[in-house]
Amino acid sequence: MSGGIQDVRAEDITALSTQSGVRIKTAVGRGAYVKDIFVRRMTLKTMKYAFWMTGSYGSHPDTGYDPKALPEIKGISYKDIVAENVTYSARLEGIENDPFTGICISNVNISLTQKPKELQWNCTDIQGVSSKVTPQPCAALLEKSIECPFPEDRLPIEDVKLQTCSATS
Q1: How many CB atoms lie within 10 A of CB 6?
Q2: Is residue 167 domain-resident?
Q3: Is the confidence at residue 103, as pLDDT, over 80?
Q4: What is the domain extent for residue 90?
Q5: 35-68 confidence digits (pLDDT tens)
Q6: Nearest residue to 45 via CA among 110, 134, 132
């Protein structure tokens, strides 16, 4: 089993000439979780995918892994994102019989390359909602008049004070 990731907050990000703006990857046999991920205010330029989530990322590195260990992917929130020169808006692929749930995408405007792919939102085994997203997302991201959440409380790490050290010989 792999470790879990939760309560991640990312904001005010610019990404240029990358494969994807946001990527979450896991696979059957990894177990654990990725949950409560919050991303806002991103500017993305020149990339293949604005959003990429996959539940079939490569083979497991441990030959003795448990093939029944399914990861839990839930509570993923993206909002206030502008992307330019994108080939695919999103590739969102959960795991059969173990869908990624609680995906929320709001206030997103994706401008496409001059030669975009015909299918802009490739979604399988996911569940979520969307609001004010262009191009129009897949049917698995139900259109609702919502704004995706982003917690406003402070995390303990935000209060860490770095101290300067010096050494003399």
Answers
A1: 13
A2: no
A3: yes
A4: 5-159
A5: 999 999 999 999 999 999 999 987 666 777 788 8
A6: 110
